[in-house]
Amino acid sequence: MFLKPSQFVISFVGLLIFLTILVTGCSNTANDEENRSNKDKDKSKVLTFSWSGDIGDLNPHTYFPNQWFSQAMVYEPLVYYGEGGEIKPWLAESWEVSKDAKEYVFHLRKDVRFSDGSLFNAAIVKKNFDTVLANAPQHEWMELINQIKSTEVVDEYTFKLTLHKPYYPTLQELTYIRPLRFVGEAAFPDSQNTFADGLKSPIGTGPWVLSEYKKNEEAVFTRNEKYWGTKPKIDKVVVKVIPDGESRVLAFEKNEIDLIFGNGVISQDSFQFLKESGKYETKLSEPTATRALLFNTNREALKDLKLRLALQHAFNKQAVIDHIFYGTEKKADTLFAPTIPYTKINVKPYEYDPEKAKQLLDEAGWKQVKGKPFREKNGETLQLELMFISTDNIQKAIAEYAQGEFRKLGIDIRLTSKEEENFWTTANEGNFDLLFTASWGAPFDPHSYLSAITSASEGGSPDHKALSGLPVKKELDRKIKEVLLSTDKENRNRLYKDILTTLHEQAVYLPISYQSNVAIYHKNISGVNFLPQDYEVPFTSIDVK
Q1: Are strands 383-389 and 412-418 parallel, antiparallel or unpaired?
Q2: Fewer C-beta within 10 Å: the chain N or C terminus?
Q3: What's the pTM?
Q4: List of domains in the chain
């Protein structure tokens, strides 16, 4: 049957209308699905954070350029350092210590999986311990590494650690962010040597998984849905690399980042400005560590105790605290705060006394020369290099202040700023006169900080070389080794007192203040607090409205 022309037109128009409705319906459905998808995306909770440098390759068995906070997001310890120094169960739900304190038996949680779904068990714990021990010289700043005699799989969820000698900080050192945390089997390189050859991928048991990464630009961490513990409240943490502190403040004010956290990440001027604006939430932690200058006694000029003493009396700590910190930090007179176990010593502080400093400089042979701004000795100008991390706004401010103050006494201070990784490489090589340092805070002080003085290991500190010019260095190292292995608390107290008194009398550290972390965040952010290890950022407890 054939259609008439009029019927054909009507049918054709009807078909067009039908197709239009069909396409429109499909289009609307697609748009609805897209809108729903966008709404779902909008519901995801994202926190944007910034750091001065790259997060590194996220290997818990290595050091720079890895950052403490990012390693702590992905990897976990057997035991955790809690408030007040309490050692809490973590990947190990319980443990026993033998009567002679040489054997530790850990009973592991049975509900833990790595982020790739693989099981966490005693075999993988042993494998991680063994790869760290295979590179022991890199980790000998931790005395525990030197004391581990053997590792053993007792059964699938029981791991045994045997020591050569009793070591009182064993559990404390097992809480550290590196190097004794755990990667999954699939993360190991073909060589099985994680220190030498890195990881195939960052597979941990922690609450976060690295999902996107652009070196020196940005890293995105996504909540680990396989996490055994309390899952984070937010879905993602975006870490943006912003080297400059003032740029970080501008990005924060423009809502490009949500949280500023840490020490030295912005200037104290900026912190005060943001605090006083009333637009943001701000917090200041309790003191975490001692900010100090370290003198390199391997340098010819600084071998002289009188010069080191002169520098102590020439530095006006209170002025720094009043004008740079606005009174938010307290003056430090010893390397460790007296509130830390074993560190309370009875010594006379080096008070600010420019006249005393001049007298000591004269006695050391550094004389003022008429018509010249700087002191000289045997025709040589008294010039010292002060090295600081270029992205640390507080170090920069103090360095510039010190340069001006020392100049008044005829000391030429040459400031050298270096990017963080280059700073520590140079420092560990001993290529400096003065540099900024800090004690390590809980749970490291005083035992691990002092242990690092005796060792040249990569993960340690520049203190080993800086102190090696001291005539008492050999005896100092002997006492440190003895105190770490002492099983008698009274003996430990006596030895620590001797060690810390010697360091004070040798004037190799110039303590400045007890430093604190700052937190600045927008008012829609909650759950920001300071954790017992101040190198961690509290991403797990943070929420975003």
Answers
A1: parallel
A2: N
A3: 0.87
A4: 78-186 (3.40.190.10), 208-285+517-544 (3.40.190.10), 289-515 (3.10.105.10)
